[in-house]
Design brief:
213 residues, alpha/beta, 21% strand, globular, disordered C terminus
């Protein structure tokens, strides 16, 4: 997939949509987890597993435990949602150097949950599917994180996530005392502000194809 050129317009980072509404030869994305390979099909092949609904797929060189790396890998999907009638995914499928990531850090999970309006986030593990070919009814793929995103859109995205996170914690105390909730919100806001400042010098992050470097 590293040989393909994704879509990058209106300030959005490079991404792929399968099947594409704007391409006459749109294809369905399929992957073979066991062989660490991907393929495209015009129709759903026989003897494959179909994951229905929308899937967000991220590929990164870095982990999803670190807030900085996790934010870079997944935040762009919420900008895509905002520009596409707030369509929510059924699941996330996350890769690090071609390997499926089965869990994310708590901070990254809470960010994803806030971006989905407080809904539980499903992280697909492809458990038990090593010998299968898995196809996606619809998939949005991002391999370069927030690289290439315009400063205006990036700042608007961070503000949207900040407000969503604040609303989520005001609605669901999670057993925390009011002071603890305020501290958590203040910490989250502070981190996003630092990320926003750091991204001013950010020129893009090259990530690898499924299967490694």
């Amino acid at each position: 997939m590293s040989t393909l050129t994704g879509k990058a317009s209106n300030g959005m980072p490079e991404h792929f949509v399968f099947p594409s509404d704007q391409h006459p030869n749109n294809k369905i994305l399929c992957i073979s987890h066991g062989n660490k390979s991907y393929a495209f099909a015009s129709t759903f092949p026989e003897n494959t597993t179909l994951l229905k609904g929308l899937t967000f797929i991220a590929d990164s060189f870095y982990d999803y435990e670190n807030p900085w790396h996790g934010l870079n890998a997944v935040a762009g999907f919420f900008a895509w949602m905002r520009d596409n009638e707030c369509k929510k995914p059924r699941r996330f499928l996350l890769f690090k150097n071609g390997e499926v990531v089965k869990r994310v850090g708590n901070w990254v999970y809470n960010l994803m949950k806030a971006g989905l309006g407080g809904e539980v986030v499903e992280v697909e593990s492809l458990e038990g599917r090593d010998g299968e070919v898995v196809c996606f009814e619809r998939a949005v793929v991002m391999r370069r994180g927030l690289g290439g995103m315009s400063g205006k859109m990036r700042n608007g995205l961070f503000e949207m996530l900040r407000l969503s996170y604040n609303m989520e914690h005001k609605r669901i105390p999670l057993g925390m005392a009011p002071g603890e909730i305020r501290n958590a919100i203040r910490s989250f806001n502070s981190l996003l502000e630092k990320f926003s400042e750091s991204f001013k010098a950010y020129k893009g992050l090259e990530t690898g194809p499924y299967g490694g470097r």
